[in-house]
Amino acid sequence: MMAIKGRYAWKSYESTARETHAWSFLDKLILLLVGAACAFLILAVTQCGGERTQIYQETLPSFVGMNEDEAISYLTKKGWPFEVTYQAGDPEQKSKVISQDPEAGFFIDGSTTIFLKICKLKEWGMPQLTGMNREQALALLSQLGLEAQIGEVETQKKEENGVVLAQQPPPGTKVEEGERITITLGKYVQSKVIEETYVTCPACGGSGKINAQIHMARMVPCPQCGGKGYVELPYEGFITCPSCNGARIYTVFDAIDNWITCKKCGGSGRVRR
Question: Do 76 and 98 belong to one domain?
């Protein structure tokens, strides 16, 4: 009985060992296949990622200080998405890029949006300055961020002294911050008394004009024959009119006034002593 039991126990052990060996081999095969699949996927992802980086990723250049048109043209050619905003700034930076996001040197791809900020000066309608005094005009120009260039013109009216008499550009014109505006101020100059060294012009009598009459000829019927061309004399009958010589018309000259500037005084009515 002991021998029989030993044989059955051995056979049971051999069967269990064979099954265990079979499952162990199958597990290893499955693990090998799973590992190969993972390695393939990792290799594929790595290759795809490397190609994407090589095609799309670039270093962003600096646009700060570049003109607006130049920067937009560059971005458009590259095909990169971008947005532009405007901000008031220094007049010397007019229409130039003053900031960017992302900053220069940043690695970007085709999906990165680039934000540019452009300097744009404020625009104003040119105000009316004429009639203001110097202080009022300069204060208003300073408030609008405009520069003033001041000129002067002599005037004999005291009320115009220090007052803006002219401006350029005229009111209503569009001007930008930092633009130079020219204003002309009145400068009162007292009129000088000229020593009397002149006398009335003897040619025109002080009027400045003389009458250079023009004589115009016109034809009228002969007053002697009444336009007949002949006259009747007692005891002689009809004879040719001695005044018109038979032409029946008579020439009359009319004097027409023609006032011209006196050449002696030039129209002033005065000449030096």
Answer: yes
